[in-house]
Amino acid sequence: MSLLRIDAAGPGTTLQDAGRHGYLRYGFTAAGPMDPLAHATANRALDNPPGAPAIEVSLAGLAVSAEEAPLGVALAGGEFRIALDGEPVPPAAVLTLRPGSTLTVRAGRAGAWCTLAVAGRIDVPPVLGSVATHTRSGVGGLNGRALQAGDALRIGEARPGPGEVHALVAPWLDRPPEEIRVVLGPQDDAFAADQIAAFLAGPWTVTPRGDRMACFLDGTPLTHARGYNIVSDGIAMGAIQVPGEGRPIVLMADRQSTGGYPKIATVIGPDLGRLAQAQAGTRLRFRAVSVAEAVAARRAEAEALAPPVAREPLVRSAFTPEFLLGRNLIGGVVDGAA
Amino acid sequence: MALPRLLDAGEAALVAEFGDRVDPAISDRVLGLDDALRADPPAGLRETVPTYRSLMIHYDPLVLDRDALAARVRALAEGMEAGGEGAGRHAGARWTLPVCYDPDLAEDIGAVAEAIGRPAAEVAALHAGAEYRVYMYGFAPGFAYLGGLPEALAVSRRATPRPPHPANALMIGGGLAAVATVPMPTGWYVVGRTPVRLYRPDQDDPFPVAVGDTLRFSPVDAATFASLEARAAAGESVARREP
């Protein structure tokens, strides 16, 4: 048994597993990771079962420490600034968190979410078979809420990580957010052809309003062919609904199970994380693909994660100036001394 | 009735759309297809979500091919049209839920009475006199959308939402009725309260009422409500169910 202590946590950092599935028919949101690929990568890097609970760190950051026993940790997601006792760590990495050490995860130049997985089992009682946190309905995680300073997570069957920090070789996490692939529909027929073209031409700017429920986009408003009131139907993750005022809203992990605005298109599964990681101000376009293309992208993703995730040790003396700039080392040192 | 339109909602969900309005005949088709798919689910089927007018079918596209799923859905829908299995009206359970319409609990019944120009007691009698079908869940855990609201109670929704409704509220708005389990801000009107929980995560059957079930409401006074509420809070089931 080991203990992972939350020393500091900004708002919006939650426990997530693969989601609470099977209850959408009762109005129950699945929740689960905003960036499923990063979540899967972090768990895979530690040989955890797929979909094991992990911490999803928001832009507001996190500091954790281990008690009782050393604890293997994997990080994957956006380009966060990560430090182990003040020493910079790559944004995708595995390491051992020893009792007395502190691991900090802070927003970096790109990305909005960072998955922190631990080698072992985060012991939190599941609700309806899942520990995924849905704060709006107060379900899952620790008492249905986000993590906060003072929380401690019991880790069953804890295993230490490597002796030194290793970078994960996970090129599939390098996902520029400029182009997001979609399958048109299910209500693309609620828009005239020129409005579909305008939707695909964009560009759309990610607004700061987003959260785990939805990503709000700004751009030239779209118009509906026959009004925007439709009788409610189901909502898939990634559904892009267009409300009356015409600016698209992409419904994400904490979306409602059903809803009543026309959905012009749906972000394909492999690009959900790409979109989730887009910081406010990011300009992006949508590209329509076929279901077959989307499935091929899914298959490629599954194949990338099938073998163990390669890792390489960090040789501190070999840091290039580009790497140091990329890590924002000066800021890290100042923060570390604070 | 025509066969459903099949619409892709990305590469992992397929929508079988039977119509574009709230209609018991459309709901029958949605629930018939849902029953048939779930009775013999193809490998890779994840979950289905019945709504007023469509069935959303979530699937794993690495296991279940989209076109194979579409062919299966079409075949089941054709079977329903031909009067085969699942063609009849969806046979749900019938429930009677105690409801208190006392204005202290039914916070907005006065506002509805004013809006339709009838006394609050008549609003309660109209609401309790009807039979409702659970068309779908949505919005929040255990938020059941009901069809069957009497025309006289078809008030429009509020212009601006009210503060969170109490737990287990009977609500109306926009010509629809709902049972709303988890308190949330809402644009609907609270016209009654039931001690029955449609979502109870600590029980073996966390969602006792299924989509397609029928609900009737049995008025109780505030004292009876309080005693039933205490029993329900202790885990007892206080709704009556006929199979």
Query: What is the assembly state of the chains in this entry?
Result: heterodimer
| Low-pLDDT stretches of chain B | none
Instruction: Measure the end-to-end span of chain B.
Output: 28 Å
Rg over CA atoms of chain B: 19 Å
CATH superfamily of the largest domain in chain B: Cyclophilin-like
Fraction in helix of chain A: 10-25%
Unreliable stretches covering 5 or more consecutive residues of chain A: 329-338
Ends apart, CA distance between termini of chain A: 32 Å
- Based on secondary structure, the structural category of chain A is alpha+beta
How would you describe this protein?
- The complex is a heterodimer of chains A (338) and B (243).
- Chain A is of the alpha+beta class and 338 residues long.
- Chain A is built from six helices and 21 strands.
- In chain A, the strands form three sheets. In chain A, strands 1, 2, 3, 4, 5, 6, 7, 8, 9, 10, 11 and 21 form a twelve-stranded antiparallel beta sheet that branches. Chain A has a seven-stranded mixed beta barrel with strand order 12-19-16-17-14-13-20. In chain A, strands 15-18 form a two-stranded antiparallel ribbon.
- Chain A is globular, with a radius of gyration of 20 Å.
- Chain A starts with a strand and ends with a helix.
- The model of chain A is unreliable at 329-338 (pLDDT under 50).
- Chain B has 243 residues and is an alpha+beta fold.
- Chain B has helices at 24-39, 66-81, 109-116, 120-128, 222-233, and strands at 5-8, 13-17, 45-50, 54-59, 94-100, 132-137, 144-147, 169-173, 176-180, 189-193, 214-220, 240-242.
- Chain B has an eight-stranded mixed beta sheet with strand order 10-8-9-7-6-11-5-12.
- The chains are: A alpha+beta (338), B alpha+beta (243).
- Chain A binds chain B through residues 21-29, 127-128, 136-139, 182-183, 185-187, 230-239, 256-259, 263, 266-269, 291, 294-295, 298-299, 302, and chain B through 7-13, 15, 17, 20-22, 46-56, 58, 61-62, 66, 136-145, 182, 199, 201, 206-207, 211.
